């Protein structure tokens, strides 16, 4: 009887649990503290940056200073085509090889692009870091652009173009109205250019802009010494590549009548670029004082712009301050979504609010907390962190440590934000509009 009791599942399970608890207590593992950002530059000019967090996952990204801004009329949309061609065959590996082998280790490969950069990003468990480095560097530096594979990506491009929201279209048109070319080039290929990008154009764009001096290899969850070794796998041409043409703001206007019941309008004035750190931060704080949209689901927008819009119309317009920023230029203004019949009143009210903006000490204090939270929250995503570090390194040659962000933001005074508001009040506005524009005013009437 006693032997059967000892062998019973309940007793055996309890004993196993006790043994397991004792074993854990004896083999307690201490995780080392995360290491700060380390940055170095290789002999060929490639910048390498790492954050060793001693985690189980390694994330690698190659950020290249090449985007829609670098397009010319003949190859307009090539950066969009380049983005959706990531993972196609290289000079060393087939597309099937890349897809199959990355899937086998549970990895993934992504490509995102902006107006001034493009990022290739991969992630896998730490023991597979060398393998993803091999595939990532090959995808970046040995692209082959086979014509039949480029043709196979066109349906995907058409789907992406079909899914562009009216608000996004308005924001793209705002850049075109404000900058015309360069930063005015769209992130999306024009409909009439779909299928026009041949392998020669693609290769020419990559050869011209994908150079070691315009690239940064960033890793999270990897020792710096290993990342330096991975950097040597990138076979890019040496040099800084061509310099970008300086951007000039124009108080232009772009309108796209598509019908429907809504109007989507974007207004913006010129703002400093990211290299003017203090002025740029002041504009980012002013953006939050003006109101960056609702912060709760189905909630009303907060800030001066929403109050002005709701006072002008009871049609529940949606208004948010916008502040896209680039290396040498930026924009500061508002994005408006409103019923077409109320667009005239709401747009005029928002434009008047932009031109009469003022700030208080309490508003700036709240904006600082909001900005710090936004930045640190964005850096909580490994992909966003890698993209942020890479773009900072390529623009300024250095990256701001996360623990330095609060100090930097708090160093901006109320007077700095008031000066930004004063510049906004005296600036000309660029404007774009999409949708039913029957009552939408023209920019010269605002």
List the keywords.
446 residues; 42% helix; alpha+beta; disordered N terminus; 6-stranded mixed β-sheet; globular; 11 strands
Topology summary:
Blueprint: H1 2-6, H2 9-26, E1 38-41, E2 47-51, E3 57-64, H3 78-84, H4 95-104, E4 108-113, E5 118-125, H5 129-141, H6 147-152, H7 154-162, H8 166-179, H9 199-209, E6 215-220, H10 224-231, E7 253-257, E8 262-271, H11 277-290, H12 304-312, E9 318-322, E10 330-339, H13 343-355, H14 361-378, H15 382-396, H16 405-410, H17 414-425, E11 430-435
Parallel strand pairs: 2-6, 7-11
Antiparallel strand pairs: 1-2, 3-5, 3-6, 4-5, 8-10, 8-11, 9-10
Helix pairs in contact: 11-14, 11-17, 12-13
Structural description of this entry:
This protein is an alpha+beta fold and 446 residues long. Helix content is 42%, strand content 16%. The strands form two sheets. Strands 1-2-6-3-5-4 form a six-stranded mixed β-sheet. A five-stranded mixed β-sheet has the order 7-11-8-10-9, sandwiched between helices. Strand 9 and strand 10 form a beta hairpin. Helix 11 packs across helix 17.
For the biggest sheet, the summary is: 6 strands, mixed
Binned strand content: 15-25%
**Going across the major beta sheet, what is the strand order?**
1-2-6-3-5-4
Run of helices and strands: HHEEEHHEEHHHHHEHEEHHEEHHHHHE
Question: How many individual helices?
Answer: 17
What structural class results from the helix and strand content? alpha+beta
Q: How would you describe the shape?
A: globular
Helix content: 40-55%
State the end-to-end distance: 94 Å
Mean pLDDT: 89
Poorly predicted spans: 1-21
Strands, count = 11
What is the CA-atom radius of gyration, in angstroms?
Answer: 26 Å
């Amino acid at each position: 009887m006693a032997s059967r009791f000892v062998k019973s599942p309940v007793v055996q399970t309890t004993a196993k649990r006790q043994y397991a608890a004792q074993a854990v207590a004896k083999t307690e593992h201490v995780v080392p503290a995360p290491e700060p950002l380390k940055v170095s530059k290789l002999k060929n000019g490639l910048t390498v940056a790492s954050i060793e967090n001693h985690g189980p996952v390694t994330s690698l990204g190659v950020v290249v200073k090449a985007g829609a801004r670098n397009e010319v009329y003949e190859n307009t949309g090539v950066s969009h085509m380049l983005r959706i061609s990531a993972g196609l065959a290289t000079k060393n590996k087939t597309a099937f090889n890349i897809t199959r082998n990355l899937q086998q280790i549970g990895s993934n490969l992504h490509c995102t692009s902006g107006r001034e950069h493009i990022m290739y990003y991969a992630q896998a468990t730490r023991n597979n870091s060398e393998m993803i480095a091999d595939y990532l560097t090959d995808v970046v530096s040995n692209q082959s652009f086979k014509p039949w594979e480029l043709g196979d990506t066109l349906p995907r491009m058409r789907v992406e173009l079909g899914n562009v929201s009216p608000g996004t279209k308005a924001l793209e048109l705002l850049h075109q109205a404000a900058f015309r070319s360069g930063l005015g080039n769209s992130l999306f290929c024009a409909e009439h250019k779909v299928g026009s990008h041949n392998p020669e154009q693609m290769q020419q764009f990559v050869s011209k802009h994908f150079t070691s001096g315009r690239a940064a290899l960033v890793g999270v969850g990897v020792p710096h010494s290993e990342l330096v070794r991975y950097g040597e796998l990138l076979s890019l041409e040496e040099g800084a590549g061509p310099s970008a043409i300086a951007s000039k703001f124009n108080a232009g206007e772009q309108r796209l009548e598509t019908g429907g019941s809504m109007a989507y309008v974007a207004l913006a004035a010129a703002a400093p670029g990211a290299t003017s750190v203090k002025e740029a931060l002041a504009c980012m704080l002013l953006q939050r004082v003006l109101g960056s949209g609702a912060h709760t689901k189905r909630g009303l927008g907060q800030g001066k712009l929403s109050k002005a819009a709701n006072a002008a119309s009871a049609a529940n317009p949606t208004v948010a301050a916008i502040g896209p920023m680039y290396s040498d230029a930026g924009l500061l203004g508002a994005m408006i979504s409103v019923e077409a019949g109320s667009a005239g009143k709401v747009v005029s009210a928002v434009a008047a609010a932009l031109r009469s903006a003022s700030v208080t000490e309490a508003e700036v204090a709240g904006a600082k907390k909001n900005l710090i939270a936004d930045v640190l929250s964005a850096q909580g995503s490994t992909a966003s962190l890698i993209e942020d570090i890479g773009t900072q390194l390529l623009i300024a040659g250095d990256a701001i440590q996360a623990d330095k962000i609060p100090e930097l933001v708090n160093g901006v005074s109320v007077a700095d934000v008031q000066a930004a508001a004063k510049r906004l009040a005296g600036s000309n506005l660029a404007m774009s509009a999409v949708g039913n524009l029957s009552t939408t005013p023209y920019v010269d009437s605002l």
